Each structure stands twice: as C-alpha cells, then as structure tokens.
Amino acid sequence: MSKKDKNNTTAHEQVDEQILDNNEVSSDDTRTVEEQLNESLALEKDKFLRLFAEFENYKRRTAKERNELFKTASQDVMVALLPILDDFDRAYTEISKTKEKDLLKGVELIKNKLKNTLESKGLELIDLRTGDEFNADNHEAITQVPAPNEALKGKIIDVIEKGYKLGDKIIRFPKVVIGQ
Predict the structure, then answer these.
(1) Residue 147 CB-half CA count within 13 A
(2) d(CA 43, CA 6)
(3) Is 21 helix (H, G, I), strand (E, B) or coil?
C-alpha cells in the first residue's frame, strides 16, 4: 500500500469516528431545545445570585471596617493625651494637700474639661478597685506582693496606672499590683 492510500484510509477513519461521536451526542441529547435553554438559564441565575450575594457581603464587610476605622481613628491622639490626663490626676492629688483651694479648683476644672472632651470622643476609664479579680487578658501585672489577707490572694491590691478603652478596644491596659 502506498503512503497516499494510507493517509486516505486514516482520514476516512477519522471522519467515521467523528460521525459516530456526533450520533452519540445527538442520541444522548434527547432533551428539547427549550429544556436545554431552561437549564442554561437556571445555571446563569444561580451564578448571578451567588455573585450578587458575594457583592452584598463585600459591601457589608467594608462598611463595618469603615465604621471601626472611624471609631478608632483617633486612637493615636487619645493614647498621646492619656499621660496628660494622668499628670492632671497627680497634680490634683498634690495640690489637694496644700491650702491653695483656688488653685485646686482651677486644676480640677481643666482636668474635668479634658476628661469630658475625651469621653465625648469615646474614651472610657476601665473601672478597677482593690479586691477585683485579676484577669491577664484585661490587666497588666506590674508586680506581686504578699497578700495582706487570704481574700486578696490572686486579686488586685493596687492600681498603679489607670486603663482606658476606646469603644470596645482597650488602648491602655491598667497596670496593677496583685496579691500572692
């Protein structure tokens, strides 16, 4: 057999296979055109609904992140002002030991004005008292001292530095002394 005859035979076999494949597809595909279109439409609707839901989730997530950013945008300024608030507390304590009541009143007015302004921007004092339970997630232990009595073991004995929250986020942990 010549090369030409072999190529013709191979070409005819390939054409025959394609015809058989087409016949198999058409015999398997007994659905009507309308059913095929309905199925295609259902698939496209599903894709659209999933894409729409994903976009809605994206919008909600970005809106939530933006709100959180606005809430904590002033965090750096607040953290920078906390030592000043602490200085006012120390000044008030020291001036209250003197007889200068007018000076005490002036320091108190300035401190309250600063404190109220910061509170209006979302700053909150973390309220702690002697005897409160120590929690390593919310407090920073500076040192441990022997507890004066059994009831204060593992509890807060003294607050060295006040802690503050901005919204739900702690921006400065309270520094405490705990009983051992």
Answers:
(1) 13
(2) 46
(3) helix
Handedness of CA 160, 166, 168, 169 (dihedral sign): negative
User: Is residue 45 over pLDDT 90?
Assistant: yes
123 in Cβ contact with 80 (< 8 Å):
no
Please name the amino acid found at residue 20: L
> Which tokens is 16 given?
């025959």
pLDDT tens column, 17-34: 555 555 444 444 577 999
Scanning the structure block, which residue is given the tokens 């809605």?
56
Question: Helix 101-120 and helix 75-95: axis angle, to 10°?
Answer: 160
SS3 of residue 159 by DSSP: strand
This prediction has a pTM of 0.61
Per-residue model confidence as pLDDT tens digits over 9-18 = 555 565 555 5
d(CA 145, CA 169) in angstroms, rounded, equals 29
Q: Which residue has the tokens 């279109």?
A: 37
Q: Which two tokens stand for residue 62?
A: 């970005």
Output the pLDDT for position 150: 85
Token pair recorded at residue 110: 């300035």
